[in-house]
Structures are given as structure tokens and as C-alpha cells.
Amino acid sequence: MFFRSKALEEAHRELQDREQLLRALSNRMAEERQDERLQIAAFLHDDLAQHLFRLSIQVDVARRHLAAGKLDETELSLEEIKETKNRTSDRIRALIRDLHRSPLGRAGLAEALHSFIAETARDSDVRVHTDIDELPLPPPIALLLYHIAREGVMNALKHAQAQNVWVTVKPVDDEVKLVLRDDGIGFDTADSAPEGHYGLTMMRERALVAGGTIEMRSAPGQGTTITVQIPTSWLAPEGQERTAAHPVAPQAGASPGTAPSHPGPSAESVLA
Ligand SMILES: Nc1ncnc2c1ncn2[C@@H]1O[C@H](COP(=O)(O)OP(=O)(O)OP(=O)(O)O)[C@@H](O)[C@H]1O
Ligand SMILES: [Mg+2]
Fold it and tell me: How much distance in Å is there from the Cα of 164 to the middle of ligand 1?
């Protein structure tokens, strides 16, 4: 009897943890959607509205030239109007392209990370080495990992003065493990980030919100290693609970003895 109620209690607690995790994840996704809306609003306000305003001024000028019988000037104004219109169309097309291109798209985490890294490291002397498994991850987990990895790589390129950066994504039991390492100058992880800089904070928050763990190892002069482990089974579709992180060959890359991760502290308190 005692054991039964103990088991029930544990099952109940696990259910509550899962519920909390899902709520926090959906809050996080809603926030990200809201950010996107703000970006679109800013584009419409700052960019598009100014192009249209310029167009209306150019039309007025053309009209005045025409009324004064200055045909050459009118011709010039019409050219300018056409140019502004073309520039506006280009900006709108760019916005549409961005909106279509979710960071992950249909490609999945591995392809999205490879293309982000290729694009970002193109103009840099830093060598970025990747060993990223193609894993059938639940989309919210893939997106969180993408954002974490992106911030880590950006930090390494911006701050580390590194020669090499390594990015690996591997399955470990029913978790996915992301490791970001650089051989740069390192930093004191106990220091608080400069005012208004939230990259590391958001990396931590994203890992915890997904019920995972994050470890940052760095010391001045010794490079930086960030390890993130996120369980995939909680969000896997029914029937795939224990296999979500596994590629076709089960257990590939798994390291026995890895401590199971936990739902973390109250996922909601992390967001608060
Ligand atoms: N890989 C790294 N190597 C050396 N220093 C780092 C590394 N990652 C972070 N840092 C240090 O930690 C600080 C905080 O990083 P964080 O990502 O929070 O902010 P940021 O990159 O400065 O700004 P933001 O990410 O908001 O654009 C950085 O300013 C930098 O000094
Ligand atoms: Mg940063």
C-alpha cells in the first residue's frame, strides 16, 4: 500500500513537471512569435512607410515640374520614382523571403546549423568544425537547440579570438547532447554579462525551459566549452518515447553512464 501510493505520488509529480514544461515551452514560442510581429511592425513603420513617403514627395515634385512645363526635370523625377518603387519592391520581397524561411524550415536542425555556420564563418578566419547528427527531434526541441547553438557560435566568433570552434550534436540515451567548444581566450562564467547583453542568459533559459541541463566551462585563457543536454522523450509523439533522439542505428554515439537529466527547476520560474 505504501509503495503504491509512493509510486502514484511520483507519477503525479512527473505529470505536473511535464505540464509545467509544456506550458513554459508554449510561452517561449508565443514570445518568439511576438518578437517576430514586432520586427515586422518595425519594418512596416521604419522602412516601408518611409519609402512610400518618399514616393509621394517625388510624385509632388514631378507634378510641379510638369505644371511648369519642365519636361527634362519631369523625366528625371519619373526616373527617381521608378527607382524608389524598385527599391521598395526589393525590400518587400526580402521581407517575404525572411518570413518564409523559418530558421529550421523543413530541413531540420542539422541542415539549418550547417547553413548558418557556413554563412557566418564565411568571412572569418576561425575554423568551425562540425559533427552534427541528423536526428528526428521534436520541432520545439530542434528550434531551442538551434537558437542555443547559434548564440554559442556567435559568441565564439565575436568574443573568443579563437582559431577553432567545434559544434557537435549527438544522441545520448533519450537525450540530445550539444557541445560548443572553442580554443579562444575564455572568460569568467561567474561574471555577470554587460548591461543589455542577454545571449548567455537566454542560452541557459532555453536549456532549462526544455527540461534540460547546461554546463558552461571557461576560464580566462583556456577556451570555452558549453554542454547542453535535453531529453527528447517528453515531447516525442506517442510510441516514440524512448527513441526520439536515436538515429536509424540505435544507441549510435550513446555514452553509457550519463546521468539522466531532470525537468530542471520550475520551468516557469525560469521564464519569470
Ligand atoms: N566563447 C566566449 N569566449 C570568450 N568570451 C565569451 C564567450 N562567450 C561569451 N563571452 C563573454 O560573455 C559575455 C556575455 O555574453 P552574452 O552572449 O551574454 O552577451 P553578448 O554576446 O556580449 O551580447 P548579446 O549576446 O546580447 O548580443 C560577452 O560579452 C563576452 O565577454
Ligand atoms: Mg552573445
Answer: 17
How confident is the prediction for the chain on average, in pLDDT?
81
- Return the pLDDT at 71: 96
Best residue among 200, 201, 222 to mutate for probing ligand 1, ranked by most atoms within 8 Å of CB: 200
Distance CA 255, CA 134 (A): 18
**DSSP letters along 150-194, please?**
HHHHHHHHHHS--SEEEEEEEEETTEEEEEEEE-S----TTSPPP
CA distance 143 to 207: 11
Q: Where are the beta strands (DSSP E) in the chain?
A: 127-132, 164-172, 175-182, 213-218, 224-231
Counting ligand 1 atoms within 8 A of each CB, the residue from 197, 198, 201, 222 with the most, and so the one to mutate, is 197
Task: Kindly report the CATH number that applies to the domain delimited by 109-271.
Answer: 3.30.565.10
